[in-house]
Amino acid sequence: MTAGTVAIRIRGVSHQFGEEGDARHVRALRDTSLDITRGELLCLIGPSGCGKSTLLNVVGGLMAPTTGTVEVFDQKVAGPMPRDIAFVFQENALFPWNTVFENVNLGMVFQGVPRAEREARAHRSLEAVGLKDFAQHYPGQLSGGMRQRAALARALSLETGILLMDEPFGALDEQTRMILGEDLSVLLSRTDKTIVFVTHSLGEATFLADRVAVFSARPGTIKQIIHVDEPHPRKPDFVTSPKFTAIRNELYGLLHDEIRKTIADTGVAAAGPAR
Amino acid sequence: MTPSRKERQGRLASRAVQATFLIVLIVLWYLATTRWRVSPLLLPNPVTVLHNFWDILRTGEFIGDLRVTLTELAAAFAIAATSGVTVGYLISRSQYRIRVFEPLFAGIYSIPIILFLPLYVLFFGLGPASKIALGATISFFPIALNTIAGFGYVDKTFVVAARSMGASDYQLFRHVLMPAALPIILSGMRIGFTVALLSIIGSETIASLAGLGHRIVHLAEGMEIARMFAYIVFVVFIAMILNTCVSVLEARGKRF
What we know:
The structure holds two protein chains of two kinds.
Chain A (H helix, E strand, L loop, with lengths): L5 E12 L8 E12 L3 E5 L6 H8 L7 E6 L2 E2 L8 E4 L11 H12 L3 H14 L15 H14 L4 E5 L7 H16 L4 E6 L2 H7 L2 E5 L6 E6 L14 H25 L9
Parallel strand pairs in A: 3-8, 3-9, 6-7, 7-8
Antiparallel strand pairs in A: 1-2, 1-4, 4-5, 9-10
Helix pairs in contact in A: 2-3, 2-4, 3-4, 6-7
Chain B lengths: L4 H30 L11 H14 L3 H30 L2 H15 L7 H8 L3 H25 L3 H9 L4 H38 L5 H10 L3 H29 L3
């Protein structure tokens, strides 16, 4: 496959939780279609409950959509595809009873990597995220930022073509997430992975993404796609450039009305102020 | 983690208070039997008790009763642990079964099952079988309840993460469910072990042919109060040793 071919093909995907008429019935996602190109980093951004995480889970085969289909590398998704897709979750997805090294190793055991390859791959991916000195630590001994680096190392060691990241830095403070974002951009410029990244942060989306898909309020669908034409790895001074500010403001304009709608619908300030 | 100096000092201080408390109790006991002239039929002199205690150890006359009690305990605990973990695991696999059985077991666990001892004696006789059956019944509930809690409430993120990486059913059990549930199951086993010991010695004092509880009641009925006290001290030591062993095993299984 050459660059520019479609890695993930989303066609008419809708999802609802519960049955119609049920008290807990929620229409999370409506009629969403999108092609994600091989090697690109696509951010999904939108108000809380707009279905962006749902879409990510559908793409990863963790959830079957109510209607519509997803194809990954021209194969229909019907369940987890551990050879093609790796996940990084928001938090607490490392096993606390295993060391960082054991966590990375175990992912490869699950995926079916031969024993002989596992150790070298684990060391390589821990080195890549800057955690090689912490291989024997337990997750409970690490800071939140380091835990997410370890989760990223586990996902990288699986050597999948696609990486799905569900607010991976969502639980971290602003400074840690800035540094992690910069490191991620450097790391990803060296690979040809296709990445789908869910975030709440306008700055994070602008800094990381090749394209940003902005969602409408629930039941969400993609309202508009913004291109960020800036090569990876992105330098820290990209953040202060007029281009960055312009894109961030454009995103803010698109999101603002949707967030207002969400708050009006639910009566609660479900989404925090946009950053 | 190695404790800091301050922590060590704090622990030493509380140990000292505990030791002082025990020493004061023994001194009061001694004074009651010498100064305050409490009848030796009610409270024997601690020195006499100590002599009896050494005598029991030296002659080894405790061995028969100890063997009976420990065999009952081992059998009861083995039955309770095996059935408790199996039943608990099977219940934990369905939310419906958890909803049905968890409150049911918790309810049964809260009634004093030892009340059914006469029934157990009728069914299983005066020998060890009734003690084993009762001990196993009482010990089953905390083990089953903790197994349900351990397996039933594993963080869903762990399961989803393992599945997304391609974990098979067996791998999920071996590498995720088991380690997540183990600390809670071990706590249940420690509680189960303690209640099995209590109920077995207790039921030996009520209706039995042999065992440490039986020996204590037998001596009381024969008015050999000092020797009875010596056996009580002996049982206290045995219980302390057993509970320490179980706690050490539990702590080993829980390290992370």
